[in-house]
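QA checklist item 7 of 12: single-chain prediction sanity check.
[x] sequence parsed
[x] length recorded as 107
[x] structure emitted
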Amino acid sequence: IVYYISTVSFPIYSIYLAITSDISKTTNRLAIESFMRYLALKFLIYINSCSIFYIHLLASKPFRQECKLLILRSFKRDQNKRTTKVASARLYTRQQLNRSYNRQPIE
């Protein structure tokens, strides 16, 4: 159903545009056509692509588990990068302080 709705709108819009190309249009009509073009060309095309993911997510327990693991791994990797950056920044700052003051390393 989602596939049908998201793919049928573009040909309908194209036919409508071809039929009404010779008609002078008001600003309201142009605004409505612009909105319909957005729906037909951009929004519904993305819905079509994303619907497969959501259908699998709802229907398949192993797919949900795999997605959950992937998200958790990605989140943990981001946290590790942040921790590493903070730790290396602290170490770099300590090294700079030690060099500038000629002190023994702070532990």
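[x] summary fact logged: The two ends are 64 Å apart (CA to CA).
[ ] second reviewer sign-off
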